[in-house]
Design brief:
Layout: E1 5-9, H1 16-29, E2 36-41, H2 43-52, E3 57-60, H3 77-82, E4 87-90, H4 93-99, H5 103-115, E5 119-124, H6 128-132, H7 136-147, H8 153-156, E6 160-163, H9 177-194, H10 197-202, E7 204-208, H11 216-220, E8 227-230, H12 237-244
Parallel strand pairs: 1-2, 1-8, 2-3, 3-4, 4-5, 5-6, 6-7, 7-8
The protein binds glyceraldehyde-3-phosphate (G3H).
Residues 9, 92, 164, 169-170, 208-211, 229-233 line the site of glyceraldehyde-3-phosphate.
Length: 248
């Protein structure tokens, strides 16, 4: 059975002092949880998070695929590895929309991260326009196919997928648990076509988009939803605790 993996994504929020007290409070409250908890932090908070967190896994929110070079403002995989980063979120819709992330760069990043032993959390998801045109599954499966290009079955097992419908991010509009489940199921079927059922069955697929303490239980009860990537509700310690300790 796949373990539930719930990651907060702080986006461009937070500071050192706040993170330290957040970790203290949250880790005390989730000690006995069987859920894997993680936090995707801004670059400047990564080292503090990695050094202070005992239970929570720390993720970066972006990385460059190149080894080094003239990429002003970017951070390399080796730089993240040097501080012991275990996960990196790639292809988040905000990075695709505002910072030129493409399916091709997502694929390059995934390949290089896997080589470095870092788990990529590969984001995918459709706009409202695509949803209304009833093209969600085609769109998302296209993103997945491109993200996994030239990735072997054994390496595919070292990845996580986050399905995040763009229209549900930060809007308070969550996909219904059933709608989210259907897309996650289709992603798994697509993985079975790219690889095989055994591989598809082992890959963690998270849902993201206005997840909060009141809808987490229903979302997590779905067969193909293996966790969540949570923005807004992960910023408050009490809400994050409620998410990790969700009622089963
Ligand atoms: O990475 C997280 C997602 O963008 C979801 O954000 P949200 O929970 O604020 O809607």
């Amino acid at each position: 059975m796949r373990q539930k993996v719930i990651f907060g994504n702080w986006k461009m929020n937070g500071n050192k002092e706040g993170l330290i007290s957040f970790l203290k409070k949250v880790e005390k409250a989730i000690k006995k949880s069987d859920v894997k908890a993680g936090l995707a932090l801004p670059f400047t908070l990564l080292e503090t998070g990695i050094n202070k967190a005992k239970i929570i896994d720390i993720a970066a929110q972006n990385v460059h695929f190149a080894t080094n070079g003239a990429y002003t403002g970017e951070v390399s995989i080796a730089m993240l590895k040097e501080i012991n980063t275990k996960y990196v979120v790639i292809g988040h819709s905000e990075r695709r929309e505002m910072f030129g992330e493409t399916d091709d760069t997502v694929n390059k990043k995934a390949i290089e991260l896997i080589k470095a032993g870092i788990t990529p959390i590969i984001c995918c998801g459709e706009t409202l326009e695509i949803k209304e045109a009833k093209k969600t599954v085609t769109w998302v499966n296209g993103q997945i196919k491109k993200a996994y290009k030239n990735i072997s079955p054994s390496d595919a097992l070292k990845t996580i997928i986050a399905y995040e419908p763009i229209w549900a991010i930060g809007t308070g509009k969550t996909a219904t648990a059933n709608d989210a489940e259907i897309v996650c199921q289709k992603i798994r079927e697509n993985l079975a076509k790219i690889y095989d059922e055994k591989v598809a069955d082992q890959i963690t697929i998270q849902y993201g988009g206005s997840v909060n303490p009141s809808n987490i239980s229903e979302l997590m009860s779905q067969k193909n939803i293996d966790g969540a990537l949570v923005g807004g509700a992960s910023l408050k310690a009490d809400d994050f605790i409620a998410l990790i300790n969700y009622k089963k």
